[in-house]
Amino acid sequence: MAFRKFLYGRWIGAGYAIKGAWILLKTEPSIQVQAVIGVIMTAAGILFDITQTEWLFQIVAIGMIMSLEGLNTAIEAIADFVHPDFHVKIGLIKDVAAGAVFITAVTAIIIGLIIYVPYIMDLLD
Predict the structure, then answer these.
(1) Per-residue confidence of the chain (125 residues) as pLDDT tens digits?
(2) DSSP secondary structure string, 21-90?
(3) Which is a GO BP term held by this UniProt record (predicted)?
(4) Is 94 annotated as a binding residue?
């Protein structure tokens, strides 16, 4: 019985997670941009027939940037709720969260370049 309760709790939790992901995709422009980039990169992976290892790196990069965008959105919402007016420390918290997204985005770009530049160079030869 305890195991069934555990599974039921996970099922309910997954529902909340899916709801949160849907809200992000529907309402947050930064996530929408990242989702479009993710679709473009997935299409590029299919077009260039990238290797399984390259797919793994690409999927992790897309997942990390979208996850961090979601966390950044949550941090900003909490900060605005706690202190709606401008506050230096709230600004610092928001900047640090945005900085984490930036670092991940740069990392994703580097991963994309490492994967795709050789394929593009082969096309140009």
Answers:
(1) 787 888 888 888 899 999 999 999 999 999 999 999 999 999 999 999 999 999 999 999 999 999 999 999 999 999 999 999 999 999 999 999 999 999 999 999 999 999 999 999 999 98
(2) HHHHHHH-HHHHHHHHHHHHHHHHHHHHT--HHHHHHHHHHHHHHHHHHHHHHHHHHHHHHH--S--HHH
(3) phospholipid biosynthetic process
(4) yes
Active site residue 54: no
Considering all CA atoms of the chain, what is the largest pairwise distance in Å, rounded to the nearest integer?
64
Q: DSSP class of residue 103? A: H
Cα–chain center distance at 34: 7
> Which residue do the tokens 């997954």 mark?
14
The C-alpha angle with vertex 73 and arms to 104 and 76, in degrees rounded to 5, equals 110
Active-site entry in 38, 66, 69, 70: 69
54 known ligand binder:
no
CATH code at 29-124: 1.10.287.3610
